[in-house]
Amino acid sequence: MKKIGFLSFGHWSDSYGSQVRSGSDALLQSIDLAVAAEELGADGAYFRVHHFARQLASPFPLLSAIGAKTDRIEIGTGVIDMRYENPLYMAEDAGAADLIAGGRLQLGISRGSPEQVIEGYKYFGYVPQGGSTDAEMARQHTDVFLQVISGGGFAQPNPRPMFPNPPGLLPIEPQSPGLRDRIWWGAGTRATAEWTAQQGMNLMSSTLLTEDTGVPFHQLQAEQIQRFRDSWDAAGHAREPRVSVSRSIFAIVDDRDRAYFGRRGAEEDQVGVIDNAVARFGRSYADEPDKLVEQLREDEAIAAADTLLLTVPNQLGVEYNAHVISSILTHVAPELGWR
C-alpha cells in the first residue's frame, strides 16, 4: 500500500492553451484541485515553491486555505527553499497552518533548486556569514526552524509585558504538536539523504539526483533510499520514517490523453548539468494502463518508497488534472498493489 498524492508547480501563463492565466488562477485552482483529489481518494496535495517566477511562491496562505476546505488529505510542499526563509516567522506560519488543517501538514524543505535570479535569497535579506555557502545557510535556517517548532522556550520574557507570561523562557507560538515529525528534506544526493536521516527528517526525493554513477535513475534513487533507511536505523530514532518519490505518470485512457501524451514513445533517463554538477534525470511514463503497470513494476525507487507524488500539468486545468489523478488511482494503483 502506498500513499498517492499530486505535486503541482503552480505555473501560470497567458499563452495559448493555458487554463491558468494569472496568479489568482494558480492559487484558486490549486485549492480546487486539492478538494477534487480528496474526493477521488488521493492522499496528498503538494506544491512546489519558487521565487521570482510565475509559479506558486509563499506557501502558507495556500496551505491554510486548503486545510480549511478539506478534511482528510495531507497538505505539503516539495520543497520550500530554506535559503529564503526567516525560520522563526516560518515556524509561526507553519504552526498556524497545521492547526487550521488539523495536523495534516507535510512540509518538504531543502536547500532549494536553481534560481530565476542570481543569489535571489539576498533580496530577501539573507547572506551567508563567515565564508559559509548558501547551502550551509539553508541548513542553519533549518536547524533553527526544527528547534523552535519542537516547542522549547528560548526568548527572554519582558518583565513588564502587555499580557501575563507563563514562567520561564518563551517559545514560538502557536505550537502544533507533532509537526516536527512531519518535516521532509528534499535530498539530491545519497550523502544528503544520509544527513537527512541523521537530522530525523523524512526523505523527499524527486525526479533528479545531482550525481550520476552510470546506473539507471530508479536504481540510483533506490540506493539513496536504502542509505537513508540505514542511517535512520543507525541514528536510533524512535519512529518510522517516511520516504516519497515523485514521477510524471500518465495513463492514456481517452482521446485527450492521446492528444497530450500519446506521441511521446519510449522515454529514457537523461544526464545533464545542474548547478555545475552532473545530474541524472528520471524518465516520465505515459502509456495505456496495462503497459504502465508493467513499466512501473520495474521502478525500484517507487517500490522502496511509501509515498508517490504524481507531478501534474497544472496549466491544463482542474478538471483534466483530476482526470489524470483518477486514472492512476483507478486503472494503475490497484494492479500494482498500491490500493
UniProtKB/TrEMBL annotation:
GO molecular function, one term: oxidoreductase activity, acting on paired donors, with incorporation or reduction of molecular oxygen
SUPFAM superfamilies according to UniProt: Bacterial luciferase-like
Entry GO CC: cytosol
Domain of life, source organism: Bacteria
Sequence ranges assigned to domain Luciferase-like in this UniProt record: 6-259
InterPro entries for this protein: Bact_Lucif_Oxidored (IPR050766), Luciferase-like_dom (IPR011251), Luciferase-like_sf (IPR036661)
Name listed for the protein in its UniProt record: Luciferase-like domain-containing protein
Organism: Gordonia rhizosphera NBRC 16068
